[in-house]
Amino acid sequence: MKLDLVIVNPGHRTLAYQGLGEDLAAIEPPVWAGLIATYVRKKGYSVALIDANAEDLSPEDVAVRIQSMKPLLVAIVVYGHNPSASTQVMPGASATCSAIKNVDPSTTILLLGGHVAALPERTLREEEADYVCGGEGPVTVVELIETLRDSAQPDLRQVRDLWYWDGDSVSQSAPAPLVESLDRDLSSIAWDLLPMRRYRAHNWHCFENIDLRQPYAAIYTTLGCPFHCSFCCIQAPFKRGEQMLRMRESLNSYRYWSPKSVLAQIDLLVTRYGVRNIKIADEMFVLNRKHVLAICQGLIDRRYDLNIWAYARVDTVREGMADIMLQAGIKWLAFGIEAASERVRDAVDKGYDQQDIFATVERVRKAGTSVVSNYIFGLPEDDLVSMKATLALAQELNTEYANFYCTMAYPGSALYAQALQQGWPLPDHWSGYSQHAADSFPLPTRHLTSVDVLRFRDAAFRTYFSNLRYQLMMRERFGDGTVAHIDRMTQQRLSRVVTRPEQASMRLPSASPEHSVIPLTVTRGAT
Description:
By secondary structure, this protein is an alpha/beta fold. 38% of the residues lie in helices and 14% in strands.
């Protein structure tokens, strides 16, 4: 029988991360691709999965493999490992589309994912794909398979959330519902279709034992996010489904797997694949106390020796929760602190009190949990003073790891819509949305240029990790081997290319002349 579906996770590591992708960055399992494979199987259709990222396959390699498989449909999945990583997958996805069509123009291709759902019409017009999914994905994929199998002249209007060519015009079908029962329809990732030995944890995730980053896996316990930070694009795949959900009050776009289902998936990873390092990929795991504690109690009862990390907010980790999570094996929590200035945070709908940051971080670390703190430079109201304050806050908190990002107006975010409306400069290529790409092009602020922001971010990264106070803490906590690894990471230099001359002078409207750029001096060991 002809294979119904091949799902492709496109490769992009070198382009997105440069040299960091070789051994410092994680190699993550494609969670969404694996979930869609499960959904398709449950509907009775055959599916294979190619993870070009994990297997280091070129677009041409993928095309040759697909030609030998001759599937009814190829679905290229443009979901990143966090919402902001979706757009940077597009160069790999685009090249894969072109390579497949070059080898066999008759191959039918569907593009889907976060970036695609944010810009469905543009994606259809620009890419060599036959169809584009404007929503979450699973329902659209199955309905398209059904339509292609059952008719020589398929009625594409019956495939919900599909964008397609109708002659010379672009048409779209009605929105698809979100998947209602996660336990029933998306019970597990299709691990058996993935190259499990190739996945590798983030380097910081394994600071406790830097040489044991494999095996590794990532799972969801929830889908979606109830928050609406203006710089985040997580809502893009769910937006059309939400329109339907508002008419059906019994459902909600923020959905849970039951603790029983989550624990069953972890059981499988531990017993069949020997996984110890696990990422809970939820945009916000520590949110529903009852849900979190039920999962943790199940893990405590199992007495697995796990090394788990998850996302939280500074206002969601209540008293006593960190102790229970640590007993369950959740050894790392990541917090989106973003900026030191409340004025800057409030401007992007990230409001909480400054004292909450210190109180939560202190509470979590007192329990013995390590902290990853995430910071963003170049938010619209940022100036040099506020960015220096953010770096100073990072050094004062002195958490076990810190991610420093530049502000990107990601497609699907409110910030992207605002940028288009007001004519703010955006990258010329999708690779420019990657934080670590050579042509990375962050958003300028009202007071600083894109070049200013990027230069500050790269210098801040080196300043933080070469700080003497930080290194002494890390040596005491994790030993000399981990500190040597951090030194090697800090010495990596990213190539940066100014792709547009105006990058060096363009700011957002209303820049004030008193906010001049002062060079940042980086001193090893500076506090």
